[in-house]
Amino acid sequence: MTRQRPPRTASPEIYERIYKMFVAPVSAFDCGAKCAAHNDGVPVCCSTEAAIPIVDKHEWKLLKSRTDLWSEYKAPDKATEKELSDLHHDCVAIECKGFMHCERDNRSMSCRTFPFFPYIDRDGDFLGLSVFWTFEDRCWVQSHLQIVNLRFVDEFVTAYESLFEVDRDEFTANRDHSASMRRVFARFERPIPLIGRDGLLYKVTPRDHKVMRARFAEFGRWGFYEKDAAAAPAKNWTQLDPASLTGLDAPGKAAAD
Ligand code: SF4
Ligand code: SF4
After folding, report:
1. Cα of 89 vs its chain's centroid, Å
2. Which residue out of 99, 105, 112 has the highest number of ligand 2 atoms within 8 Å of its CB and is therefore the one to mutate?
3. Residue 43 C-alpha to ligand 1 middle, in angstroms?
4. In what order do the strands lie in the sheet with 91-96?
5. Longest CA pairwise span in the chain (Å)
6. Most Cβ neighbours (<10 Å): which of 11, 144, 199, 229?
7. Each residue of 64-112: pLDDT tens digit?
8. Atom of ligand 2 nearest to the CA of 98
9. Which residue's CA is minimally distant from atom 6 of ligand 1?
């Protein structure tokens, strides 16, 4: 009798289950309208000039079976072609027809999760959500993290738990990305923002890896949003972690979730 090897990547069926469960928007705000105002009317994370969605081959199989929204991305120049040549052999770069044609149910994992990735510590524990910091000058959400809904956090965590259970490469890529963030933030001498799995706000000190409760005001505002007033927090922060809002300049009334 032979024993089945456990799968190393998530099957299309697992992605389908995740798509069905992971539907919460990041916040009650239309953040796309905020960043599009500085990006020729296009939400930054929906423009391949800023970010090219990368999917696993099984997620790609699922997307193709559901919609004609997506196609394989064609690199416009040699430099992009070279950048993409480093992609893991299981991954495909794709692009959609554009934000005017978005189909909410057929967004990729990268659309659903942006601007967050699962933060993994040195011991390999998945602690919560941190940000793709290289977009902080353009992504409005990263300057207003208090808008993040608890439902989004819960669904994000459930989605990655399902993926990590079967996809070691996905776990390793995010563990490595977390380590790289610690190195970069150590150089910047900045704390890493972390929205914990428990829905509370933390910071990670990148040199000694301590995880401590935090306030949103500690993380600053960046790029186009440097001079913004604080956006209204989601209700979960006022209810679960009011201390995280201390020091936010004139936070508005809690936004509806
Ligand atoms: S997540 Fe950030 S980059 Fe994407 S639409 Fe919202 S503000 Fe813009
Ligand atoms: S599918 Fe929607 S959310 Fe995803 S990149 Fe296209 S327009 Fe943006």
Report:
1. 22
2. 99
3. 6
4. 54-56, 91-96, 70-72
5. 67
6. 144
7. 999 999 999 999 999 888 888 888 888 999 999 999 999 999 999 999 9
8. 7
9. 31
Considering the domain boundaries, does residue 157 fall inside one?
yes
Per-residue b or e along 55-89, where b marks 16 or more CB atoms closer than 10 Å to that residue's CB: bbebbbebbeeeeebbeebeeeeeebeeeeeeeee
Please check whether residue 4 lies inside any domain of the structure.
no
3-class secondary structure, 257: coil
Chain CA centroid to CA 229, Å: 23
In a domain, 75, yes or no: yes
Gap between the Cα atoms of 168 and 23, Å rounded: 24
In order of 16, 86, 161, the CA distances from 119 in angstroms are: 23, 23, 12
Number of independent structural domains in the chain: 1
CA 75 to ligand 2 center in whole angstroms = 18
Domain residues for the domain of 104 are 12-245
State pTM to two decimals: 0.94
Which atom belonging to ligand 2 lies closest to the Cα atom of 111? 4
Residue 2 lies in a domain: no
Where would I find the beta strands (DSSP E) of 26-99?
54-56, 70-72, 91-96
